[in-house]
Amino acid sequence: MVLPIAILAATSSSDIDMVFNARFYKQGKAKSTYQVFLANHTGAKRKQISVGNFRCDAPLWVDRNHVAYVQILSVATNKDPDDIDTCKARVMLYDLESGRTRTLGNLPDNTEPFDIRSRGNEFTASLRLAKGSHRDLIYKVSVQGLKSRDGDFPEDPEIGTPTAKVEEGQKPPRKTTITSGAGAWDLAWTPIHKEESGDSAKEMAKAYTIQLKSTWKGKTSNITLRGEDVEKAFIGGDGTGIIMTSVGFNREYHESYLYRFDKGFGSRKLVCHDVGYLVVNEDQPLWHGYQTTQGAFFMEGLKDGRGVYANWLYTGNWKTGEQWTVLTGLVNTGSVRFRPLK
Q: How far lies 131's CA from each of 20, 86, 115, in Å?
């Protein structure tokens, strides 16, 4: 199936900070699917850029003025419930300056439909081969087209080096050094797990803390952080330190904590919590995260009063501590990508 080139109203470059895909559920029997939107980091200026009533996944920035996403045209359901479905899909390119959308390339018809992910200016997809086997591909996207190679995105490495052995299932103490033009920030931390004081996920999360030793230019501070382990640490462009920790038990509960340390790295401020699956930018002081709720919304037309997952989107500024609610209600947020500076 081929659609003509779509022309939407051009988008002012100064208005846009991010791209994301989301599914806005509709009451009754009306169908909905994931579409792609542009917005600024507060959620204002939101504008749909995807065309057609097809599922759209894995949005990414090709450069500052072009967004690409995968559009799934149809899904072939495998008769064997233990085997994998395939789809017809294509990659679309949207030009912010002209408002034009065009097809950049088609994916093979044996592409698996629901495990397409983006990172930087690339996305991954799997091709179904024989039953039980597949081939992973990484597609690099440019305004000229697609280039594929075998492989998959590597898992994000754990931060720091273990300093002691622990029993299976426990988090080991770790250390790392973060360097900048001003010097080296030495970090050493030990995850602590005490007995839970309650059965709820919130109460269980309180049993996890991190004892952190922060050393900067010979001065050491001992600080307690919330969370199960350190997931990210860096020195921002303003000379302050950023540490992200998290704790999570299942899809329904995952909470991230974002701390900003002063320029002497001796004190810290909690600039974000009550938001899960946090993604923090280093080159600009922005973060995004989610809150996932199962069965909180019951929709007319669904059998047996079945509820839906609502994945709400939040953004914030780790430098100022500001936080914004971007999407709530009957919506499931997919991927979010901030616009590159260059």
A: 33, 12, 17
Pair 100, 90: CB distance under 8 Å? no
3-class state of residue 12 by DSSP = coil
- Tokens 């709820």 locate to 200
- Cα three-residue angle 161-165-166, rounded to 5 degrees: 115
62 Cβ partners below 8 Å, 6+ apart?
68, 93, 121, 141, 142, 143
118, two tokens: 């983006």
Residue 31 CA: distances (Å) to CA of 25, 66, 277, 337:
8, 29, 28, 26
Which secondary-structure segment (H or E) carries 24?
strand 18-24
Q: Which two tokens stand for residue 107?
A: 């994916």
With 0-12 / 13-18 / 19 or more C-beta atoms within 10 angstroms meaning exposed / middle / buried, residue 276 is buried
Q: CA–CA separation, 178 vs 168, rounded Å?
A: 28
Neighbours of 284 (CB within 10 A): 17
3-class DSSP state of 199: coil
Q: Any idea what DSSP says for residue 201? A: H
* Of the candidates 330, 288, 337, the residue with the CA atom closest to the CA atom of residue 23: 330
Are the C-beta atoms of 121 and 62 separated by less than 8 Å? yes
pLDDT at 296 over 60: no
Handedness of CA 93, 278, 204, 193 (dihedral sign): positive
- Are residues 70 and 58 in contact, defined by beta-carbon separation less than 8 angstroms? yes
Distance CA 179, CA 157 (A): 18
What are 169-220's pLDDT values in tens digits?
889 999 999 999 889 999 999 999 988 777 777 788 889 999 999 999 999 9
Question: Exposed, middle or buried, 258 (CB in 10 Å: 0-12/13-18/19+)?
Answer: buried
- pLDDT tens digit sequence for 50-99: 988 999 999 999 999 999 999 999 999 877 777 778 999 999 999 999 99
Show the beta-strand stretches assigned E in 237-301.
241-250, 253-261, 268-280, 286-298
